[in-house]
C-alpha cells in the first residue's frame, strides 16, 4: 500500500455503520475524515464528543478518541475535556434535536464560554432515531407521526440564535456541497473559540419534505467577497430562508476564548498534567486557624 | 465550663459579623467552639441567629439552653427568651424592652452608643463588647482578631464600639481557660472543599444551591492559588456532565449540589457509572421535596441517592459525620472513585455544611493521591487499547485520551463492547453488567464500620448516620450513667457495613434509629440489608437540627413509653 493509501485509512473505524443507505451523514463522515487528513491531524489528538441521535453515532465510525454521552449533553463534557487538556482538538457532532431541543441551554451558554471547540450540527429538520417527529427546526405545518395536524410550533433559526448569543464563528453547510463543507470544517476546527456549523442534510427515511433535491434547489454559497466580520450583515443574511438558502461562513471574529480568560493558568501546564501533592493544600489551613 | 450565646436579629443587621467576632475571639483563647447558624431564605429582614457554644473540653453539637441572649431586634427576644435560665443574661437595646425576660435582661442604650461610636451599624459590636465584659475577657487579646476581620476605618469604629460596650456591664460569668491546643475552626462545607484540594481536584463545575454553595465558593476563592478551574455551569445537568468530561479527559473532577440539583444530575450519575468515569459528588441535603426549606436541615435524601438513576450500577455513598470526617472522607472518595472507576456520593446536610467547629488541624502527611491510571505497560503492549476490556477483576485499565501514544480512548453511554462501541449483543450486555456490578463486592471490602459511642454491649442501641454523630454522642454522654446504652453512627452507608451492628445487637432490647427525616430511611436500609428491624424510632423533620439534649429527652420518652 502506498503511504497515501495508508494515510487515507488513518481515521477508519472498524465499527459497523448503522445509518440508512443514502443518509446525509455519510457525506458528513467523508467530509470530517478528509478535513482532518488535510489538516494533518492524528487520531489520538482528536476527541469526538456526541450525545444521542443518528448524528451522535458518527464518532464511532471514525477512529479518534470518543466520548458518546447523554442526549442533549454533548457540549458540557466536550468543553470540560478541552479546558483540562487544551492539547486535544475537540469536535462535537450532534443533531438538530440533540442540540437545539434537549441541549438548548448548553448551546446558548457554551457560546458564551467560547471554549475552543468545533460543533457540527447535523440538521435534517427531523427526529430520525425516534422515527420521525418534529425537531426545533422542522417547518411550520409539516405533518409527522406526532404532529398529526401539522407542526404548530415555529421553527427556530439556529444561526440567528448563535449570532445573538455572541458566537465568534457561525456557518452553514450542506451535505450536497462536499468540497465546500470540507473547507468550512477546516476553518471551524482552526478557529480559536467556539465554532458552529449547522449542516443541512436530508433524512431519507423520515423527512419527505426537506429532501436532497429540496435543499439542492435552494442552497447557494455566499460570495467570495462576503464580509464575514460584519454582525449586522450576518444577522440579515441568517434571516434568509425559503426560496434561497445561503451557505458558508456568516460571521467570524476573534474573541478571547475561555482559556484566554483563565489568566491564572497562563504559565502553568494543562490541568491533567498538574503536579500536586496533598501537602500542597496544607497552606490553605492557615486561614482556618 | 460550657456556655451558650445566641446572637439574633434580622438579615442585614450584622448578626453574622457579631457572631464571627465572638467565635474568633473565643477560638483564639483556646476554648472549643461549636457555632451553629439558623437563617432564613432572604437577604433582608426575617429572623436569623447564631448559637455560639464554647467550653474547655471538646463539644460536638449545639445546645438548647442559653447563658447569654444577645438580641439585635425584639423578635429575637420573643422567640428565644423562654430558653433562658435563672442564671442567664439577656442583652438588648432598651427599645426592645418587654415583660418577657424581665429579671434576666440588661436593657442597654446600644443604639445610642453605636451612634456615639460612629455609626448605628455597630449596635451589634457594642453588644459584643458587653458580652465580652460579662465573661471578663482580656481585651488585649481581642484587637488582633478585630484587625484580622476589619479594614482600617471599619476597624476603628468597631474598636470604639467594642470598648464602649465593654463599659456598659459588669462581669457575670467565670471563664476557665484550657491550655491552648492547636485548633482550626471549620465548617463541613469548607472541610469538603479543602479535602478536595488536598485530593488534587483540578476541575469543579457546579450550580449555586443552598446549602451546598459553600463548597463552591470555598474552592473559587482558592482557584488562582491552587491553579484550578471552578466553573459555574448553566444548570446542574451541565455541572455534572462537565465534571464527567473533565474526569474522562484525566482531571480529578467534582461537583456538589443539594437535593433539588441532584434531581437534575441523576442521569449524569448513570453516565458516570456506564462510562466508568470516576466522579465525586457532594449532596448537601435540605428539607424537600422540591424547594422545601432552602436554608434548613434534613436527612431526607438517603433513599433517593441510593437508587438515583435508572438501571443497576455500583456506587458508593458516604455520609459525612462532622467537619473532620468530611475532610478525610472527601480525600478517600476521590481515591475510591479512581480505583473502582465509579461515582462516589458524599452525603452532607445544612447542619454539617454550615456549623463551625474547632478541631485539631488536619494531618496532610497521612494523605495520598491514588489515581489508579494505567501506564505505558498497557498502551505499549496492546496493539489495540480497549477501554472496557473484560479482565478477571472486572476493572479495565484506564487510560487518558491524548496521553497514550497512538492509542485512542472510547467512552460510551450505550451498552458497549470492550472497544467502547455501541452494541446490542445479549452476551456482551451480560458480561458488561457483571463487570460493572462486580465492583460492589470490592466496595463492601472497602467499607468502614460505623463509629461506636457509649457501651459496646448495650441494652439500648441507637442507630444514626451522618451529621447526627455529634448530637447522638452528646446524648449518650447524658444517658450513659443511668442506662445501658450505646450508639452506632454510620459514615459509609452504601454498601452498608453490617459487622458491628450484627455483633452489638446480641443483648439489645431496644434498637432505636435516630434520624432527621420522617420515614426512617436508615432503618429501612438496615432492614433491607440485614433483616434487622428497629424497635423504635426518633425522627425529627421540622428542618431544625437535633441537639444532644433533644435526643436524650426523646430516648427517655421512648424508654418510658415502652414500660
Automatic annotation (TrEMBL), chain A:
The Pyruvate ferredoxin oxidoreductase beta subunit C-terminal domain, residue ranges: 203-262
Cofactor: thiamine diphosphate; Mg(2+); [4Fe-4S] cluster
EC number(s) recorded for this UniProt protein: 1.2.7.3
CDD domains named in the record: TPP_OGFOR (cd03375)
Entry keywords, A to Z: Iron, Iron-sulfur, Magnesium, Metal-binding, Oxidoreductase, Thiamine pyrophosphate
Enzyme class (EC, first level): oxidoreductase
GO biological process, one term: cellular respiration
The keyword Glycoprotein belongs to this UniProt entry's keyword annotation: no
The keyword Oxidoreductase belongs to this UniProt entry's keyword annotation: yes
Domain Thiamine pyrophosphate enzyme TPP-binding: 56-199
Entries under InterPro entries matching the protein: 2-oxoacid:Fd_oxidoreductase, OFOB, PFO_beta_C, THDP-binding, TPP_enzyme_TPP-bd
One Pfam short name: PFO_beta_C
Record GO terms (molecular function): 2-oxoglutarate synthase activity; iron-sulfur cluster binding; metal ion binding; thiamine pyrophosphate binding
PANTHER family, A to Z: 2-OXOGLUTARATE OXIDOREDUCTASE SUBUNIT KORB, 2-OXOGLUTARATE OXIDOREDUCTASE SUBUNIT KORB-RELATED
UniProt protein name: 2-oxoglutarate synthase, beta subunit
UniProtKB/TrEMBL annotation, chain B:
Keywords for this protein: Oxidoreductase
Span of domain Pyruvate flavodoxin/ferredoxin oxidoreductase pyrimidine binding: 195-433
A Pfam family: POR
InterPro entries: 2-oxoacid/accept_OxRdtase_asu, Pyruvate:ferred/Flavod_OxRd, Pyrv/ketoisovalerate_OxRed_cat, Pyrv_Fd/Flavodoxin_OxRdtase_N, Pyrv_flavodox_OxRed_cen, THDP-binding, Transketo_C/PFOR_II
Xref: Gene3D superfamilies: 3.40.50.920, 3.40.50.970, Pyruvate-ferredoxin oxidoreductase, PFOR, domain III
Entry annotated with the keyword Coiled coil: no
Swiss-Prot/TrEMBL GO biological process terms: response to oxidative stress
Domain named Pyruvate/ketoisovalerate oxidoreductase catalytic: residues: 11-166
Record EC number: 1.2.7.3
Oxidoreductase listed as a keyword: yes
GO molecular function annotations of the record: 2-oxoglutarate synthase activity
PANTHER family given in the database record: 2-OXOGLUTARATE OXIDOREDUCTASE SUBUNIT KORA, PYRUVATE-FLAVODOXIN OXIDOREDUCTASE-RELATED
Record protein name field: 2-oxoglutarate synthase, alpha subunit
Amino acid at each position: 500500500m502506498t503511504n497515501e493509501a495508508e494515510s487515507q485509512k488513518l481515521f477508519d473505524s472498524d465499527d459497523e455503520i448503522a445509518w440508512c443507505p443514502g443518509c446525509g451523514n455519510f457525506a458528513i463522515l467523508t467530509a470530517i475524515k478528509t478535513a482532518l487528513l488535510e489538516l494533518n491531524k492524528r487520531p489520538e489528538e482528536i476527541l469526538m464528543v456526541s450525545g444521542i441521535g443518528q448524528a451522535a453515532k458518527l464518532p464511532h465510525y471514525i477512529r479518534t478518541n470518543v466520548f458518546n454521552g447523554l442526549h442533549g449533553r454533548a457540549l458540557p463534557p466536550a468543553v470540560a475535556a478541552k479546558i483540562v487538556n487544551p492539547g486535544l482538538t475537540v469536535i462535537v457532532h450532534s443533531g438538530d434535536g440533540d442540540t437545539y431541543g434537549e441541549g438548548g441551554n448548553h448551546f446558548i451558554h457554551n457560546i458564551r464560554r467560547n471554549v475552543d471547540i468545533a460543533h457540527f450540527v447535523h440538521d435534517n429538520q427531523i427526529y430520525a432515531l425516534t422515527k420521525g417527529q418534529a425537531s426545533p427546526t422542522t417547518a411550520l405545518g409539516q405533518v409527522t407521526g406526532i404532529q398529526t395536524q401539522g407542526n404548530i410550533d415555529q421553527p427556530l433559526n439556529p444561526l440567528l440564535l448563535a449570532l445573538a448569543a455572541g458566537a465568534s464563528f457561525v456557518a452553514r453547510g450542506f451535505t450536497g456541497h462536499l468540497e465546500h463543507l470540507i473547507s468550512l470544517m477546516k476553518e471551524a476546527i482552526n478557529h480559536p473559540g467556539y465554532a458552529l456549523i449547522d449542516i443541512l442534510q436530508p433524512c431519507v427515511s423520515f423527512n419527505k419534505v426537506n429532501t436532497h433535491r429540496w435543499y439542492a434547489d435552494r442552497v447557494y454559497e455566499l460570495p467570495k467577497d462576503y464580509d464575514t466580520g460584519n454582525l449586522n450583515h450576518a444577522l440579515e443574511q441568517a434571516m434568509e430562508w425559503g426560496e434561497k438558502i445561503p451557505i458558508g461562513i456568516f460571521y467570524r471574529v476573534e474573541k478571547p476564548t475561555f482559556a484566554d480568560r483563565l489568566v491564572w493558568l497562563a504559565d502553568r501546564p494543562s490541568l491533567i498534567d498538574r503536579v500536586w501533592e496533598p501537602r500542597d493544600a496544607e497552606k490553605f489551613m492557615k486561614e482556618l486557624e | 465550663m460550657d456556655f451558650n450565646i445566641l446572637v439574633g436579629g434580622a438579615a442585614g443587621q450584622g448578626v453574622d459579623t457579631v457572631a464571627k467576632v465572638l467565635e474568633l475571639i473565643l477560638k483564639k483563647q483556646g476554648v472549643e467552639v461549636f457555632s451553629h447558624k439558623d437563617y432564613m431564605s432572604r437577604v433582608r429582614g426575617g429572623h436569623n441567629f447564631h448559637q455560639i457554644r464554647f467550653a474547655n473540653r471538646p463539644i460536638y453539637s449545639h445546645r438548647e439552653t442559653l447563658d447569654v441572649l444577645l438580641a439585635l431586634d425584639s423578635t429575637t427576644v420573643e422567640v428565644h427568651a423562654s430558653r433562658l435560665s435563672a442564671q442567664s443574661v439577656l442583652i438588648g437595646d432598651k427599645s426592645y424592652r418587654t415583660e418577657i425576660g424581665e429579671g434576666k435582661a440588661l436593657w442597654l442604650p446600644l443604639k445610642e452608643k453605636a451612634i456615639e461610636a460612629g455609626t448605628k451599624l455597630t449596635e451589634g459590636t457594642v453588644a459584643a463588647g458587653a458580652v465580652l465584659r460579662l465573661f471578663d475577657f482580656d481585651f488585649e487579646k481581642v484587637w488582633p482578631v478585630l484587625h484580622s476581620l476589619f479594614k482600617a476605618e471599619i476597624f476603628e469604629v468597631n474598636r470604639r464600639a467594642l470598648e464602649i460596650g465593654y463599659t456598659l456591664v459588669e462581669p457575670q460569668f467565670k471563664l476557665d481557660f484550657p491550655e491552648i491546643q492547636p485548633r482550626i475552626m471549620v465548617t463541613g462545607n469548607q472541610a469538603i472543599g479543602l479535602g478536595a484540594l488536598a485530593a488534587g481536584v483540578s476541575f469543579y463545575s457546579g450550580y449555586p444551591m443552598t446549602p451546598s454553595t459553600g463548597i463552591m465558593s470555598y474552592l473559587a476563592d482558592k482557584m488562582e492559588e491552587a491553579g484550578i478551574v471552578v466553573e459555574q455551569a448553566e444548570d446542574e445537568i451541565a455541572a455534572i456532565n462537565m465534571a464527567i468530561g473533565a474526569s474522562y479527559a484525566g482531571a480529578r473532577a467534582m461537583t456538589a449540589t443539594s437535593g433539588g440539583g441532584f434531581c437534575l444530575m441523576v442521569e449524569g450519575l448513570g453516565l458516570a457509572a456506564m462510562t466508568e468515569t470516576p466522579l465525586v459528588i457532594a449532596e448537601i441535603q435540605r428539607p424537600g421535596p422540591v424547594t422545601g426549606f432552602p436554608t434548613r436541615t434534613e436527612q431526607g435524601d438517603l433513599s433517593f441517592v441510593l437508587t438515583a438513576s435508572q438501571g443497576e450500577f455500583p456506587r458508593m455513598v458516604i455520609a459525612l459525620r462532622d467537619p473532620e470526617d468530611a475532610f478525610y472522607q472527601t480525600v478517600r472518595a476521590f481515591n475510591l472513585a479512581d480505583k473502582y472507576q465509579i461515582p462516589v456520593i458524599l452525603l452532607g446536610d445544612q447542619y454539617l455544611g454550615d456549623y463551625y467547629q474547632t478541631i485539631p488541624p488536619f494531618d496532610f502527611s497521612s494523605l495520598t493521591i491514588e489515581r489508579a491510571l494505567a501506564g505505558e505497560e498497557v498502551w505499549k503492549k496492546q496493539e489495540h487499547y480497549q477501554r472496557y476490556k473484560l479482565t478477571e477483576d472486572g476493572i479495565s485499565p484506564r487510560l487518558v485520551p491524548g496521553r497514550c501514544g497512538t492509542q485512542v480512548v472510547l467512552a460510551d453511554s450505550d451498552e458497549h463492547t470492550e472497544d467502547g462501541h455501541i452494541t446490542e449483543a445479549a452476551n456482551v450486555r451480560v458480561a458488561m453488567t457483571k463487570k460493572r456490578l462486580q465492583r460492589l463486592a470490592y466496595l463492601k471490602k472497602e467499607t468502614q464500620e460505623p463509629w461506636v459511642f457509649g457501651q459496646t454491649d448495650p441494652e439500648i442501641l441507637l442507630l444514626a448516620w451522618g451529621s447526627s454523630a455529634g448530637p447522638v454522642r452528646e446524648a449518650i454522654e447524658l444517658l450513659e450513667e443511668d442506662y445501658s446504652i450505646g450508639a452506632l453512627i454510620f459514615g459509609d452507608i452504601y454498601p452498608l457495613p453490617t459487622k458491628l451492628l450484627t455483633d452489638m445487637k446480641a443483648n439489645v432490647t431496644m434498637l432505636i434509629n435516630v434520624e432527621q427525616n420522617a420515614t426512617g430511611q436508615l432503618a429501612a436500609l438496615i432492614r433491607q440489608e440485614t433483616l434487622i428491624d428497629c424497635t423504635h424510632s426518633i425522627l425529627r423533620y421540622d428542618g431544625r437540627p437535633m441537639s444532644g439534649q433533644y435526643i436524650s429527652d426523646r430516648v427517655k420518652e421512648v424508654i418510658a413509653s415502652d414500660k
